[in-house]
From TrEMBL:
PANTHER family: 50S RIBOSOMAL PROTEIN L3, LARGE RIBOSOMAL SUBUNIT PROTEIN UL3M. Keywords: Mitochondrion, Ribonucleoprotein, Ribosomal protein, Transit peptide. Its main location: mitochondrion. This is Large ribosomal subunit protein uL3m. It is found in: Mitochondrion. SUPFAM superfamilies: Translation proteins. Residues 32-51 are annotated as: Disordered.
Length: 320
């Protein structure tokens, strides 16, 4: 925790994302390998609100707090990338003649002696060292990334929203009060030792049974969960850190999957694109995203620390 606090208190030599920075990011984004006719110039891929980019595999390092320029305290979770690289591009044609496109990523280097021979061949073909975790992210056909590309924390823009997927902390078998928030029975006369009981679970003669899906005691946590619409507060390209506002599922040092928020970007893109309302999809002041992905080469052309603009949430703060 002391290390996380020290990282959060680095000198404010950071610059915020602006239109000029994003135009540089768009120009320096890695191009997708595509077949071009002789004499035809390659045009860099352009992000659109209908584009679905690949996500990232990160490690949850813990929680800390940041303070913006208005003195507002922001609880954040620190996510760190560990040599996250592309190992394959997947294209599958379904029976209904639709196509499935995905980018396969691998992260966290591991010793060669603990890797199976099958995975050794897979990583050798991709030209990357052995990894501990391999996951794939569904994308649109225009968002493929060349194999062997190393991704950076600059893939996500400070100010945008992301979804984080991980296995939640398991809490074992729990009762209805802890698992579902039931208030329990009266803690007074007449209830005896059933103060924390869930109470009635089924009807009498009609329906005469317990309805499927009834909230009852059982195993709590330990499953795959998605926390949606978390704001990216800061990005540190030097240490490959992503500061996300709020809490993230999973234990410390666990692997988590981070992707663009579906409800904030993808779900609203079809309606907003026709109207030209890109501010409904991207943060204010941002015209573009690193497309098809934010790479380490792109991170070298940008400041080390990039912060999101402060949001005025208090009515007592006077306008500028």
């Amino acid at each position: 925790m002391l290390r996380l606090w020290a990282l959060a208190q680095r000198p404010p030599n950071c610059l915020r994302y602006c239109r000029a920075v994003h135009s540089t990011a768009a120009a320096g984004a890695l191009q997708v390998e595509s077949a071009q006719k002789p004499g035809q110039a390659e045009s860099p891929p352009k992000w659109t609100p209908n584009s679905i980019r690949t996500g990232l595999i990160a490690r949850k390092r813990g929680m800390t707090a940041l303070w913006n320029d208005q003195g507002v305290r922001l609880p954040v979770t620190v996510l760190q990338l560990e040599n996250c690289q592309v190992t394959a591009n997947i294209r599958t044609v379904r029976r209904n003649h639709t196509e499935y496109h995905a980018v396969q990523l691998a992260a966290s280097d591991r010793p060669a002696k603990t890797t199976t021979k099958q995975m050794h061949g897979h990583f050798r073909k991709a030209g990357v060292p052995p990894k501990r975790i391999v996951k794939e992210f569904p994308i649109t056909p225009d968002a493929h990334v060349p194999v062997g590309t190393t991704l950076s924390a600059i893939h996500f823009v400070p100010g945008q929203y992301v979804d984080v997927i991980a296995d939640s902390i398991g809490k074992g078998f729990q009762g209805g009060m802890k698992r579902w928030g039931f208030k329990g029975l009266r803690a007074s006369h007449g209830v005896s030792i059933s103060h924390r009981s869930s109470g009635s679970t089924g009807g009498h003669q009609d329906p005469g049974r317990v309805w499927p899906g009834k909230k009852m005691a059982g195993r709590m946590g330990g499953g795959r969960i998605t926390t949606q619409n978390l704001a990216v507060v800061r990005v540190d390209t030097g240490l490959n850190l992503i500061f996300v506002r709020g809490n993230v599922p999973g234990i410390d040092n666990a692997h988590v999957l981070v992707r663009d928020a579906k409800k904030k970007m993808t779900a609203l893109s079809s309606a907003n694109q026709a109207k030209g309302l890109y501010e409904k999809v991207l943060p204010k002041g941002v015209d573009d995203l690193p497309f098809p992905a934010g790479t380490v080469e792109l991170a070298q052309t940008l400041p080390t620390i990039i912060e999101a603009p402060a949001y005025r949430r208090s009515p007592f703060i006077p306008p500028e």
